[in-house]
Each structure stands twice: as structure tokens, then as C-alpha cells.
Amino acid sequence: MIRVHVFRQGREATDVDIDILSEVRTEKGTVVWVDMTSPTEPEMAKIAEEFGVPNDTLRECAARHQRPKLEQNGDYVLVVSYGAKLADRAGIAELHELDILAGRGWLITVHGGEPLDSAETARRVGAHPEMFRSGSGFLLYVVLDELVDTFFPALDSIGERIEDLEQAIFEDRRSTHVSTTIFQVRKELIAIRRLTGPMRDAMVVLLRRDLGFFSREAQRYLADVYDHLIRVVEQVEDYQDLSSNALDVNLTMASNRVNEVARSLTAYAAIFAAITLITGIYGMNFVHMPELNWSFGYGYALGLMVVAAGALWLYFRRKQWL
Predict the structure, then answer these.
(1) What is the pLDDT tens value at each position of the chain, 322 positions in all?
(2) What is the pTM for the complete model shown?
(3) C-alpha angle 64/72/218, rounded to 5°?
(4) CB distance 107 to 186 below 8 Å
(5) Cys-Cys with 111: which of 98, 120, 213, 295 at CB 3.0–4.6 Å?
(6) One domain, residues 219 and 141
(7) Of 254, 274, 301, which residue sits at a domain end?
(8) Taken in order 203, 209, 213, 214, is the CA torsion positive or negative?
(9) Are 174 and 247 contained in the same domain?
(10) Rounded-to-10 torsion of CA 271, 272, 278, 280
């Protein structure tokens, strides 16, 4: 599906035909944005013809799971970037690729429908007509800003899950469930860091390299996106440290619980060992044992067992082994 947004002097025109985009994009003061959602081969061929972009480049953009990067190809630049979206109530973050082709006065975005809302982005762009002095640079800034900002709700959700994990650890909940959740959180953080790190590096190239497409004012806007990416990367690193600490604490708590169980079992084993010792002594088959002919011998043996077990129980109780 293709959505065309044409901004003339800061105002959006919605009645522009795709067949004349090659003419419209050359008009002075006009910025053209083509948003392509899961494009078909004919759609990619048409846009490639109108913008003078190789069809193979659009096919590459339609392919998923590329590494974030920035490439300059003649009179346009390719930016591969990612956004995040919460998948369900559990707060699991899903990552979605968005590829951007930007030239002088035009922009093409290719994605699978998530997480960019082109209509909302177009409204935001149209709300600042004075910014179109920067040409397509301002439009590129808005798209990247919308994309990068999707990471913050995802990271907030991860932060809340880490807080719940910390509470679960000290409430002595099942350590296996807690460990599984921690590993899931760490997996999400690693996936986000693997993408936002290269995105940050790509923004450095975009800001430092003189591409000739964007004004200095547009580069100031794009620097704000770079600042947001730094915040995202730093927040990911902070949450990675917190999740590592949570995992260490969980393992320590589990080890402590195992030690407590081992101490209790050792204490009860010592108690029953004393009883077994007394039983073993009076179970020997010697003829000359004074207590064998004593009428109170049986009660004496039982009492001795109770006293020995009780004394050991009090001893281990004082040592907090029981």
C-alpha cells in the first residue's frame, strides 16, 4: 500500500497522483513523502521510476531484518532504522524495521505497518509549516523522532517488569519463574541494544558527513534524534545492570534457601542419629546387660531418647537451624 503526502509551502495536498510525482518533487518549496507499507513489486517499480531510484534498492528496503546503517547513493541517502512496540499486556517489546530513502525535497519510507503511523506523523509535520525551510530534512527528523520515541514506552515497561522481579525475589517466590523472566528481559534488552547502538552510529555519520541534502537547521533537528538515541542506549545499559544484579540476587537467595534446607535436614539427621544410637545400644544381644532385667528399662530407654532428641532440638533451635 502507498500513501502520498505532498507538502507545498507547509500545507499538505492530498489529491496528488502518483504518476506525476516526478514533476511535483522538483517544484520549489515542495516536499514529497511516500509511505510504503508492505509494497508489491508493481508498486516498488512505479515509485522507483518516479524518483529515479534503482528498483533493487527498494527491494532491499522491502526485505526485513537488515542491520541499522546509513548509506549514501548518489543524490539520496538510505537509512535503515528500527522502532519498538509493546506486543501485549505482558509488556513484551517487539522490534520493527523501517527503511528511509531521503533526497533533496523528497522522502520514501518502507515498512511492514509497524510502528510508524504515517497519518499522525503527517499531522505533526503539517503543524509546523515554518519548518519546511529545511526541506526534507525536517520531515526526516520527524520520522526518525517518532521512531526513536517508540523505544521509551518499551523501556518503561521493561523497567516496571524489573521492579516486579526485584519484589518477587525478596518475597521468596519460585526462583525458577523469576530466573526465566529475568532471562527474557535480558534477551529483550540485548535485542534493543544491538539495534539502537548501530542506529546511534548511523546518526553520527548523518550529522558529520556533508551530504548536501539537508540544511544546517535540519541537522540541528537531527541532532535531537541523536540525543534521544543516546538516552535510549544509556537506559538500556542501566536496565542491563539492574537485570544482572537481580539475577545475582535471585541466585544468592536461592542458594541461601538451599543452605537453610540443608541445615534443617542436618539438624533432624543429628536428632535421629542420637535416637538411633540409643536404639542400637539397647538392641545389642549381650546376655549381661543390667537394664534387660530391669522392670523400668523400656521406659528408661524411651525417656532417654526423648531427652536426647529434645536437647538436640533446643540446641539447633538456638542456633536457628530449625
Answers:
(1) 888 888 776 677 766 777 787 777 777 778 888 888 888 888 888 888 888 888 888 888 887 778 888 888 878 888 889 988 887 666 677 888 899 888 888 888 888 877 777 777 777 777 776 666 667 788 888 889 888 988 998 899 888 888 888 888 877 655 667 888 888 888 989 999 999 899 998 888 888 776 666 777 777 888 888 999 999 999 999 998 988 888 888 888 778 778 888 888 888 898 899 888 888 888 777 777 777 777 788 888 888 889 988 998 888 888 887 7
(2) 0.75
(3) 100
(4) no
(5) 98
(6) yes
(7) 254
(8) positive
(9) yes
(10) -150
- State the residue range of the domain holding 286: 255-318
Residue 189: Cβ-neighbour burial (10 angstroms; 0-12, 13-18, 19+): buried
Neighbours of 123 (CB within 10 A): 11
6, 36 Cβ separation under 8 angstroms: no
Helix/strand/coil (H, E, C) string of 72-111? Answer: EECCEEEEEEEEEEECCCCCCEEEEEEEEEEECCEEEEEE
Counting the structural domains of the chain, the total is 2
Residue at grid coordinates 542506529: 199
The CATH number of residue 250's host domain is: 3.30.460.20
